[in-house]
Specification:
Elements lengths: L7 E2 L3 E9 L3 E8 L4 E8 L1 H4 L2 H14 L10 E7 L2 E7 L3 E3 H8 L4 H19 L13 E4 L4 E3 L4 H6 L9 H4 L4 H4 L6 H17 L9 H10 L5 H4 L5 H10 L11 H13 L21 H10 L3 H5 L3 H16 L2 H37 L10 H40 L10 E3 L18 E8 L9 E5 L5 E3 L3 E7 L7 E2 L8 H11 L2 E7 L9 E5 L5 E2 L4 E7 L6 E3 L8 H10 L5 E6 L8 E3 L7 E3 L4 E6 L6 H12 L5 H19 L1 H17 L1
Parallel strand pairs: 11-14, 16-19, 21-24
Antiparallel strand pairs: 1-2, 2-3, 3-4, 4-6, 5-6, 7-8, 8-9, 10-13, 12-14, 15-18, 17-19, 20-23, 22-24
Length: 690
């Protein structure tokens, strides 16, 4: 069984089951007992948790990603550690990965591809705008929800992993989508994510990634060398504009790719509006998104540059260009060779486009020729009247239903008002009139007539002075039962223009969070062990006290998890002498070992019971009470005394008493102290009676 199943992390997250395993972490389904919701928890594997530098980067990146908030990004709730477990708490997604979806459906059509790709690009646009590069975009890190939306996960985690792992240690699935600069160990920026997104689009449209090989290194080398086949050679149904978007995003040189996700989204949206659009591919990247070009501009752009994929595609246009180039080389004119090749390629593309257009027009005309409108049968007057009567009945039924719902809602509201005011169920109890507390200082409220005055919240007010009551529930004049709770809202005075963070150290966590909520801040929590600060109280804040805050700013509350608990495994002590057992426990770190005695057939001072079974982890500061044997119960005293007195009565009591006392008392006292005490007590009582 997994070591974390059933554990409670941070006294909050109960681990329920494993839902996924990755290269660096295991993902569990868990329940947050504080907010009563299901979450996903990603826990670092042991080999990474032992690396302090890796753990530091893991926490730093996780905290940065927690700042992201976008509908297409999996939300990170918390980043923390407890014991030897470092983990990230995320929202739990009910869906499957994009990889599973692709394996299930095979090749996707261009509408599905564009639908998923635009959502991923929007997530990247949001993250890139905040300086976060994903570095590991692949179908495995994209979750598809039941409603068709997608969420990108593992933001920032790849950055940590890339600083600790070599290429050969990464999963083969990641290498299929890696950018050339990542494969070479070079500088990585937002254009690397756009390259990976384009590879994912390539796979969605063709059913396979652009590069494949027998090993991760072989695949990475292909990314570095470039030369992927055009998607249309694998799927002739891919539109030309979408193919251009994919190949521009997969350009070998980062300068030839889209400069940002925003510009890639612009072209995607233009293609969505007009699926027949074709884009120009300029030599120098524009600072603005590419636009639809006329035929003359297409010819000029084609003469300026070719993409890496076009150089190795081997399409029919390329063949025509090669033939023209061969003619030009025979003439010996290098310049005319290039122009002829370009012209031949453009002519071939134009011919291909014209043929496709003609084919579509012919098919459309054929459909129009074969279309025969169907005239609906003429309705009689009686049928029309019956339809009108049916519509009238439906309208009246609708009005009746709406009226009944309105009456029911009003009745429920009246019932709830009466219930809150204590009119129902409390007719036999004494009622009081709620006093007017508005404008009163909360500390000065004394005559409450047996009501429970409770603070509901604190709010800023420009009209009510600080510490005075702004509002009350129930309101002034209501008749309620004695003991009813009256909730009041207390004024914080006018809202300050500049918000200064107070010193929240030693404040209970819930109070500190409520304070930050009132200021309009975003409180996040992480936990640390502390020997001085009580468990559940704030150790410090980030930013520190007296810092000037902005509306909506995130403030980290570092909360105490209490002192570090040192534990040891309880050994098997049954049958050991108490001195031996105590020595063994003290050697394990237990500081408070005591015993109680109990009658037993075991040898005296041997351990017959222990408080915890063998193998249990126990706090070493806890008192350990062992149960040891008193030794076997003596049998001589009960058998000799009743028989000696009747069978051999002493002839002279004055002379017999001294001989019996020394012989019986010394033997009974050392062997059974409790029996001696028991026998002496009746003797004392007899003496008092005498």
């Amino acid at each position: 069984m997994d070591q974390y199943i059933g554990r409670l992390l941070d006294n909050r997250y109960e681990i329920l089951e494993i839902i996924g395993t990755g290269g660096m972490a295991v993902v569990y389904k868990a329940r947050c007992h504080r907010l009563n919701r299901l979450v996903a928890i990603k826990i670092l594997k042991d080999e990474y948790s032992r690396d302090d530098e890796f753990r530091r980067r893991f926490h730093h990146e996780g905290e940065a990603v927690a700042m992201l908030s976008h509908p297409n990004i999996v939300q990170v709730y918390d980043v923390s550690s407890t014991g030897n477990a470092d983990f990230i708490v995320m929202e739990l997604i009910d869906g499957i990965t994009l990889k599973q979806y692709m394996e299930k459906k095979g090749t996707l059509n261009w509408k599905e591809t564009l639908h998923f790709a635009m959502q991923i690009a929007k997530a990247l646009e949001h993250a890139h705008g905040r300086g976060i590069v994903h570095r590991d975009i692949k179908p495995h890190n994209v979750m598809v929800l039941k409603n068709g939306s997608v969420k990108v996960t593992d933001f920032g985690i790849a950055r940590v992993m890339s600083k600790s792992n070599t290429l050969t240690k990464e999963a083969l699935g990641s290498v299929h989508y890696i950018s050339p600069e990542q494969a070479k160990g070079g500088w990585v920026d937002n254009r690397s994510d756009l390259y990976s997104l384009s590879v994912v689009m390539y796979e969605m449209m063709t059913g396979r990634p652009p590069y494949d090989g027998e090993s991760p290194v072989a695949v990475a080398i292909q990314h570095i060398n470039g030369g992927a086949a055009m998607p249309s050679t694998l799927n002739p149904n891919i539109p030309g504009g979408l193919e251009q978007i994919i190949m521009k995003g997969m350009a070998l040189d980062t300068k030839d790719r889209y400069p940002s996700a925003t510009e890639m989204l612009y072209d995607m949206d233009e293609f969505r509006k007009d699926p027949t659009i074709l884009f120009g591919v300029p030599q120098i990247p524009n600072t603005e998104p590419t636009r639809k070009l006329n035929p003359d501009e297409v010819l000029q752009a084609a003469r300026k540059a070719r993409t890496t994929a076009e150089k190795v595609a081997g399409t029919a246009a390329g063949a025509a260009g090669a033939a023209a180039a061969a003619q030009a080389r025979a003439a010996g004119d290098q310049k005319r060779q290039q122009q002829a090749a370009e012209a031949a390629r453009i002519r071939a593309e134009a011919a291909k486009s014209a043929a496709a257009t003609a084919q579509r027009n012919a098919a459309s005309q054929k459909r129009m020729q074969t279309y025969e409108p169907v005239n609906p049968p003429r309705r009689t007057r009686e049928q029309i009247r019956e339809e009108i009567r049916e519509e009238e009945r439906n309208r009246m039924a609708t009005i009746a239903v709406v009226t009944c719902c309105a009456v029911a809602i009003i009745a429920i509201i009246i019932f709830l008002v009466l219930l809150v005011n204590g009119v129902l169920f409390n007719r036999g109890e004494a009622t009081v009139t709620v006093p007017n507390l508005l404008g009163e200082y909360y500390d000065n409220i004394r005559d409450t007539q047996g009501l429970d005055i409770t603070i509901g919240d604190y709010k800023h007010s420009d009209t009510v002075a600080k510490d005075k009551v702004i509002s009350q529930t129930p309101s002034y004049g209501a008749e309620v039962v004695q003991g009813t709770k009256v909730t009041v809202i207390i004024s914080l005075g006018p809202e300050p223009e500049i918000k200064i963070l107070d010193n929240l150290s030693l404040m209970p966590l819930e109070d500190a969070k409520a304070y930050l909520d009132r200021l309009g801040m975003n409180p996040l929590v992480k936990y640390e062990f502390s020997e001085t600060v009580e468990k559940g109280s704030v150790i410090r804040t980030d930013p520190a006290a007296t810092t000037e805050l902005k509306d909506g700013q995130t403030v980290w509350l570092v909360c105490s998890s209490g002192p570090v608990i040192e534990t040891a495994v309880m050994p098997n002590l049954i049958g050991l002498n108490y001195a031996t057992a105590k020595s063994q426990l003290e050697s394990l770190g237990f500081k408070d070992v005591n015993y109680v005695r109990k009658e037993s057939e075991e040898d005296k001072d041997d351990v017959i019971e222990q408080p915890y079974p063998k193998g249990t982890e126990v706090d070493v500061t806890e008192e350990i009470i062992l149960t040891i044997s008193k030794g076997p119960r003596p049998t001589e005293a009960p058998t000799e005394r009743p028989t000696e007195k009747p069978t051999e009565p002493p002839e002279d009591p004055s002379t017999e008493a001294p001989t019996e006392a020394p012989t019986e008392a010394p033997t009974a006292a050392p062997t059974e102290p409790p029996t001696t005490a028991a026998t002496e007590a009746p003797a004392a009582e007899s003496a008092e009676g005498a």
